[in-house]
Specification:
The protein is α+β, with helices and mostly antiparallel strands. About 45% of the residues lie in helices and about 25% in strands. It contains seven helices and five strands; from the N terminus they run H-H-H-H-H-H-H-E-E-E-E-E. Strands 1, 2, 3, 4 and 5 form a five-stranded antiparallel sheet that branches. Strand 2 and strand 3 form a beta hairpin. Helix 3 runs antiparallel to helix 4, helix 5 runs antiparallel to helix 6 and helix 6 runs antiparallel to helix 7. The radius of gyration is 29 Å and the shape is elongated.
Length: about 240
């Protein structure tokens, strides 16, 4: 018995107790109510603010600090205005006026945001995703989209929709009025769209064929607003 409690053995036992105590501190104890990794991920997604539903079409560059920075920014703006006005002086004047009212406005960044917004909006409309549409549309435009979704749901129709791409996107108008900056864009898109009735019968479109659609949309925002997001304020379908 005395041999069992020799000094080396007591030292080992003491170390084991210390190690177990530290492990318990680090790992904790199970209560039977632990969340699974999937539950923790779902909870994190639910608590995340809905910022991803809003497309910002205005860059946030650092303010130029030197004359060289200012000149570089001006050359960049001139290049982008020439590129996106495609030789139309009225469009070029409008883009320059918007950039003068809002120095952070750059045509290239705006166009990238507009393309992302177009895909999000047409996809959300096909899926009946009202929340995404609310974040991106001005109220009158949203009301029109929402009525169309309601009519579709009342008829028991569903849309199988896949966004393929935007082979052509161009600015058709740009202006700064007394209140807002307004930019109108023509979108030529490729999509796969098939509308089915409540029995699953195809009534419009083709689920196996890419089709082309063309729209002209106007985006607007106040240069004085702290909200960096542009809203869709008008839509029309091109033939």
């Amino acid at each position: 018995m005395e041999e069992f409690f020799d000094i080396p053995t007591l030292i080992v036992i003491g170390l084991a107790i210390v190690v177990l105590f530290r492990l318990r501190q680090v790992l904790g104890t199970r209560t039977g109510r632990e969340r699974t990794p999937a539950q923790r991920q779902a909870e994190a997604a639910a608590n995340k603010p809905g910022e991803d539903n809003v497309v910002q079409m205005r860059p946030r560059p650092a303010e130029p600090q030197t004359n060289e920075d200012v000149e570089r920014q001006k050359r960049k703006l001139d290049t982008e205005v020439a590129q996106f006005s495609h030789g139309d002086e009225k469009i070029a004047e409008g883009l320059r006026a918007i950039a003068e009212a809002d120095p952070s406005f750059m045509p290239k960044s705006f166009m990238e945001g507009a393309k992302a917004a177009y895909e999000m909006i047409v996809t959300a409309f096909a899926q009946g995703d009202r929340q995404t549409l609310k974040n991106l549309l001005e109220k009158d435009v949203y009301d029109g989209f929402e009525r169309a979704i309601k009519d579709r749901e009342a008829a028991g129709r569903k849309i199988d929709f896949t966004f393929v791409g935007l082979p052509k996107v161009e600015i058709s108008e740009a202006e700064l009025d007394k209140r807002n900056a307004n930019v109108t864009i023509r979108f030529h898109a490729e999509v796969v769209s098939a509308t089915r009735d409540k029995d699953g019968t195809l009534i419009e479109g083709n689920a196996d064929q890419v089709t082309s659609i063309a729209d002209e949309w106007t985006f607007a925002r106040s240069p004085k607003s702290r909200d960096p997001n542009w809203k869709l304020v008008a839509t029309s379908q091109l033939e």
